From TrEMBL:
GO terms for molecular function: UDP-glucuronate 4-epimerase activity. It comes from Gossypium tomentosum. This is UDP-glucuronate 4-epimerase. Residues 57-90 are annotated as: Disordered. Keywords: Carbohydrate metabolism, Golgi apparatus, Isomerase, Membrane, NAD, Transmembrane, Transmembrane helix. Its main location: Golgi. Homodimer.
């Protein structure tokens, strides 16, 4: 047994065994061996670390960026990107639209392009709902001269490349993980997109020189369990009813931080139940239409007091006008290269129709338009993040943005149904 085995494993005074006698030559020999082994071990470790740190293969070529339906390196797409982002006149804006193939993103991109602004789209074409619809929107945008780079806001390197290629005056940030109920199935996707992705975009924007103006989509869901009518921008928003709402509320706080520290001009828009042509299939008006036409039973939720759940349905054209009004009235950012030069504008607006409609009335209107009687199942509102009602106070948006919704629900649903029948009957003809 080695004398080292006699040393206690815990700290304390060590009293050597009386039978033990110190042998200087043996100690010297042991010390020499220990030194030799230590040297060899350190040499092997150093060689291992050097091999680990040195590249075993030549550096990889420049990352290839998937752009739209093509798969073209970003370097080869610069002409398309710059052409799309170039405004028709020197007074036009140059706008990056994230989530450009989404419902609101498509309509906003088209409106900006029609009036002469330069528009570059960014979208990752995820599978939250059928990407076929997103690809169809992309074709509409391409015909209008809007190029979409296929990628996500979580790819900071890609964002940096886009900002290096184009001097954006504005960013219309509409990319997000949407939907209230889906958050119970995939909560990570909401944190990934609505928080981490937003921070990525703000990080790249604050370092730009000059910094762009940021307009971004918050949500009426931030009002959460608020029972005060009407919902005003001054109301408390610290009681979210869903994770989706919580991530949008977090986005508003993050926006405040980047405005305060870096001088980014930021405007948040709280959308209230947007509907219309090219809409999202996960929205009630959309899948109600589909199921009523197929003769399927639809579920209509009621509040605990047996009243119908109500929403402040807002037609897409009105939302677009609000987005453009926010962009046009926004003041420039005050920072440069990540350094704040002075106070910057920070705003938040409700964009709603200010006339809540019971979901039961929505169904009645669809029955009238489709000329089909719906099969309904009435059930209590589940605890899945949905709230009983939404009702927007739009006084601030009317005053500062010139916002004035002009489409009532029946007129808007007629336009939606017309598009729906045209789009899906056309798809069936193509597939047959």
């Amino acid at each position: 047994m080695s004398h080292l085995d006699n040393i206690p494993s815990t700290p304390g005074k060590y009293k050597p065994d009386k039978a033990f006698r110190f042998n200087s030559s043996a100690a010297s020999s042991s010390l020499s061996k220990l030194t030799l082994y230590s040297t060899l071990f350190l040499s092997v470790l150093l060689v291992f670390l050097l091999l680990l740190s040195s590249p075993s293969s030549p550096p990889s070529p420049r990352r290839q960026l998937s752009t739209g339906s093509h798969h073209t390196p970003l370097s080869l797409s610069h002409k398309l990107i710059r052409k799309s982002a170039r405004p028709r006149s020197t007074t036009g804006h140059t706008v990056l639209v994230t989530g450009a193939a989404g419902f609101v993103g498509t309509h906003v991109s088209l409106a900006l392009k029609r009036r002469g602004d330069g528009v570059l789209g960014l979208d990752n074409f995820n599978h939250y709902y059928d990407p076929t619809l997103k690809r169809a929107r992309q074709k509409i945008l391409e015909k209008a001269g809007v190029f979409i780079v296929e990628g996500g806001i979580n790819d900071k390197g890609l964002l940096q490349q886009l900002f290096d290629a184009v001097l954006f005056t504005h960013v219309m940030h509409l990319a997000a993980q949407a939907g209230v109920r889906y958050a119970m199935q995939n909560p990570g996707s909401y944190v990934h997109s609505n928080i981490a992705g937003f921070v990525n975009l703000l990080e790249v924007s604050k370092s730009a020189n000059p910094q762009p103006v940021i307009i971004w989509a918050s949500s009426s869901s931030v009002y959460g369990l608020n029972s005060k009518v009407l919902f005003s921008e001054k109301d408390r928003t610290d009681q979210p009813a869903s994770l989706y709402a919580a991530t949008k509320k977090a986005g508003e706080e993050i926006a405040h931080t980047y405005n305060h520290i870096y001088g980014l001009s930021i405007t948040g828009l709280r959308f209230f139940t947007v509907y219309g042509p090219w809409g999202r299939p996960d929205m009630a008006y959309f899948f109600f239409t589909k199921d009523i036409m197929k003769g399927k039973t639809i579920t209509v939720y009621e509040s605990p007091d047996k009243g119908s759940v109500a929403r402040d349905f807002t037609y897409i054209d009105d939302i677009v006008k609000g987005c453009l009004g926010a962009l046009d009235t926004a003041k420039k950012s005050t920072g440069s290269g990540g350094k704040k030069r002075g106070p910057a504008q920070l705003r938040i607006f409700n964009l709603g129709n200010t006339s809540p409609v019971p979901v039961s009335t929505l169904v009645s209107i669809l029955e009238k338009i489709l000329k089909v009687k719906a099969k309904k199942r009435v059930m209590p509102l589940p605890r899945n993040g949905d709230v009983e009602f939404t009702h927007a106070n739009i006084t601030l948006a009317m005053t500062e943005l010139g916002y004035k919704p002009a489409t009532d629900l029946e007129a808007g649903l007629k336009k939606f149904v017309r598009w729906y029948l045209s789009f899906y009957s056309g798809s069936k003809k193509k597939s047959s």
